[in-house]
Amino acid sequence: MMSLLYGLVSGILFGVLLQRAEVLRYDRQVGALRLMDMTIFKFMLTAIMVASVGIYFLKDMGLVSLSLKEAAFGAQIVGGTLFGIGWGLLGYCPGTAGGALGEGRLDAAWGLLGMLAGGAVYAAIYPALKATVLGLGKVGKVTLPQVMGVSHWVVIAAMAILFLAMFRLFEKKGL
Predict the structure, then answer these.
(1) At 139, is the secondary structure helix, strand, or coil?
(2) What are the tens digits of pLDDT across the range 74-126?
């Protein structure tokens, strides 16, 4: 029961942060797609960094264990392409569509309905996808630090340096 409460509280907190960072705004979404407004990218990169530190700290403390899914490039390419098409057509990504609907933007409801329909279609054709595209380029249940043969903290530190350099470039360019 407590894990559900933690999930609810962290979900509400994340929603508040999405709203406060203005990443739920349609003009920010379109600006990101046109690479003219990096607000959403800065928000996402910050979330990735905070989550990386938090998850691996908890893992190192023995409080959580990672449950990795098998990586397959075919699935990533097809899924990423569909994600991008949906984002471009709707003007919201899945998370921001839910937040935008919560703010009262009814256009986001169409995207959420589309996601449900897409999920139903995916479930219906999953056996065919599993036998074909989802199996392409399987690399197993691995993480980047495992592939590189280094500590996860080395990868996290490198990511932090890269992200900070990107933030500086974005600010310098007024993005």
Answers:
(1) strand
(2) 888 988 998 888 888 888 888 788 888 888 888 889 888 988 998 999 999 99
Predicted confidence (pLDDT) at residue 4 exceeds the cutoff of 90? no
Rounded distance, CA 15 to CA 161, Å?
A: 27
Contact assessment for residue 143 and residue 68, using Cβ atoms and an 8 Å cutoff: yes
Q: In this predicted model, what pLDDT tens digit does every residue of 31-63 receive, in sequence order?
A: 988 889 998 899 889 989 999 999 999 999 999
CA distance 150 to 155: 8
What pairs with residue 71 in β-bridges?
140
Residue position matching structure tokens 């739920």: 24
Domain boundaries, the chain: 2-172
70: Cα separation from own chain's centroid: 17
- Which residues 6+ apart lie within 8 Å of 68 measured at CB? 141, 142, 143
What's the token pair of residue 54? Answer: 């938090």
Work out the number of other CB atoms within 10 angstroms of the CB of residue 160.
14
Instruction: Detail the DSSP E strand segments found in 25-114.
Output: 71-72
What interhelical angle do 152-172 and 39-60 show, nearest 10? 160
Helix (H, G, I), strand (E, B) or coil at 67: coil
Q: Can you tell me the distance from the alpha carbon of 80 to that of 72, in angstroms, rounded to the nearest whole number?
A: 12
**pLDDT > 90? residue 170:** yes
